[in-house]
Amino acid sequence: MRxxxxxxxxxxxxxxLAALGVxxxxxxxxxxxxxxxxxxxxxxxxxxxxxxxxxxxVVRDRMWLGASTGLLGALAVGAVPLIGQASGVPHATLAQxxxxxxxxxxxxxxxxxxxxxx
Length: 118
Description:
The chain has helices at 14-47, 52-78, 80-86, 91-95, 100-117. Helix content is 77%, strand content 0%. The protein starts with 13 loop residues before the first helix and ends with a helix. By secondary structure, it is mainly α. The mean pLDDT is 86. The chain is built from 5 helices and no strands.
């Protein structure tokens, strides 16, 4: 007996793929904003490389920047159903979203806090 059967071939309809596209249209810029904000702090970290006491405020501010940009990005990704409804995305597409926006919103926030810590 085969371990794979054609019935579980993970085929999706156009509405679910469109829902993924709508969500990724918000998720991608949100993660790019978080990454850009974290990269923008690196010159300040490098300038305080030899001064641990001077580095502490920079790291603290970086954590706040990461948390705030991550939270804003997570709110934007979590609001994909509202943004889609306001921008004219068909209801059939929005009905296929499920928990994807919430999961990706959590992903943005966790990535932002993780990036700010490293």
